[in-house]
Amino acid sequence: MNPCQSEFGQFLEQQWKLHTKQPQLVREELQKLQVAALSEEQRIHVGALACHVHGEHLGEWRGGIAYIDSLLTAQPSMSSETHLRLSRQRAILLKASGAPYGFENLNTSDHFHIITLATPAAILMSDPKLGVDIFAEALVLLPQLRDIARHEKLFGVMTANLTCDLIERNELSSEQKTILAIIAEKSFAIWQRIGDDFDKEKASFRLTQAYLAVRKPMGYGSGRYVRSVNIES
Description:
Elements: H1 5-18, H2 23-32, H3 40-57, H4 61-73, H5 80-97, H6 108-125, H7 128-141, H8 148-167, H9 174-194, H10 197-215, H11 227-230
Helix pairs in contact: 1-3, 2-3, 3-4, 3-5, 3-6, 4-5, 5-6, 6-7, 6-8, 8-9, 8-10, 9-10
């Protein structure tokens, strides 16, 4: 199997559309690509999706790491850039799971990339406290970066998406509510600084939704009362 670029692009676009509601199905589709003759660029994109699905949506750290390892070992002669980007994806899963990943040989920008994308995976699927600690690491590192505009955009997108992920959950623990308020407020502040008018409007709306989610009582559900047991026939 050697997917052409157009077919591969369509396939990947479809998997990204499906992954939120059907992460197990996307994982199965990705497994089929392990025997495919992928280009280096295709390996990077497949690795990114595999990292995201195994981490943020399934919490399957070992499976995700094994998948990235298969992409790394299947083409030993890959360029250093491709190897670095796949290694970053592997490190995201290690960091989010609480395992050491050894960033000593990475530059500050790569380190920031890893901990920023490990934050939502840890908060959503691993250990919320670990996720907050990783988030704090990223906040400390951000001002030290040279290309701060590019890294602020990455951080803004991550916090916006994580805010939405938490808002969309039916129930949030008190710990998750505290985390949601922190993430949403930081995201709002970033987008007010770097965003256009539409970005700022969306950030304001997300913050309002976050505050409502924080105030939502446990067991609220849809807010409805069961008609059959609460209204006389």
